[in-house]
Write a structure and sequence with these properties.
Elements lengths: L14 H9 L17 E4 L5 E3 L1 H16 L7 E4 L6 H11 L2 E3 L21 E4 L6 H9 L4 E5 L10 E4 L5 H19 L20 H21 L19 H6 L16 H13 L1
Parallel strand pairs: 3-4, 3-5, 5-6, 6-7
Antiparallel strand pairs: 1-2
Helix pairs in contact: 2-5, 3-5
């Protein structure tokens, strides 16, 4: 933690945060480098890829979160991402921090032309890539709008006020950066405690491809069909059990009374007609 000596103890990262940043490739740059990003580059690998200083990445994340919290109205902050990998992250960042977002193509004149329907007057701009979102950064300079940007090793720093050195081309890196920034903003506001983990998973900030989702759904449906077909006798009809002859009828079981046994063939003389015939024979005698 010696590289974070400039930060107070409460703002220093945990080991889990550093491991997540390394696993997401936040420190991986490009083969090219900009002259303004030299102070954020740690070294260059044998294959020519620049490695960013992850300690300065965390320091600039904390600085950006403090700048965002200084805005009284959260809706005066706008997050922009024209890159597809950052559109979902921008939407989630705006949802959890209360900011606004532009997750599609930036309409020229949004900050300068008052006639347009999309005209906005924010106080702070958060940009995913200064090169892809160059139009928004350029218009922000016209209206004296401070800009926070995730900058790779080859990103231009013109009109950028707070540059966060990080990999802004990978979907895992972009999602994790916006997740860390959202968590730090909520912690500084007091909404989320630093002693407990944030209950929002980082997976919600990652880009999801529609084709991959459809493919996963088809694979799950196919697996479910295979499991159903492997179960023996799943669709066979169940054979009815034979009813024993000595079993009492259903009525006896319901009423609780025994059903009288049927009379034999020689017992029919005891009926009402048989009694009347016997009485008439006695009277004639």
């Amino acid at each position: 933690m010696s590289s974070f000596a400039s930060l107070p103890a409460i703002l220093q990262p945990k080991e889990e945060d550093i491991q997540m940043m390394l696993s997401a490739g936040v420190h991986t740059g490009t083969r090219n480098s900009d002259s303004g990003m030299e102070e954020y580059i740690w070294r260059r690998r044998n294959d020519g890829v620049h490695i960013l200083n992850i300690g300065k990445t965390w320091e600039k994340l904390v600085l950006a979160a403090r700048v965002i919290v200084a805005i009284e109205n959260p809706e005066d902050v706008i997050a922009i991402s024209a890159r597809p990998y950052g559109q979902r992250a921008v939407l989630k960042f705006a949802h959890y921090t209360g900011a606004q977002c532009i997750s599609d193509r930036f309409t020229p004149g949004t900050f300068t032309n008052q006639i347009t329907k999309q005209f906005k007057e924010p106080r702070l701009l958060v940009v995913t890539d200064p090169r892809t979102d160059a139009q928004a950064v350029k218009e922000a300079s016209y209206v004296n709008l401070p800009v926070i940007a995730f900058c790779d090793s080859d990103s231009p720093l013109q009109f950028i006020d707070v540059a966060i050195p990080a990999n802004n081309k990978g979907k895992l890196s972009i999602g994790l950066l916006y997740w860390l920034l959202s968590r730090e903003v909520l912690r500084l506001r007091g909404t989320v405690s630093r002693g407990a983990d944030w209950d929002v998973p980082v997976d919600l900030f990652f880009h999801r491809d529609i084709e991959e989702l459809k493919k996963n759904e088809e694979e799950q449906a196919q697996k479910a069909e295979e499991v159903a077909a492997a179960v023996p006798g799943y669709e066979e009809p169940v054979a009815e059990a034979p009813v024993p002859e000595s079993a009492p009828p259903a009525g006896a079981a319901e009423t609780g009374f025994e059903t009288p046994a049927p009379a034999a063939e020689g017992d029919y003389g005891t009926s009402w007609e048989g009694d009347q015939g016997a009485a008439a024979a006695d009277a004639t005698e």
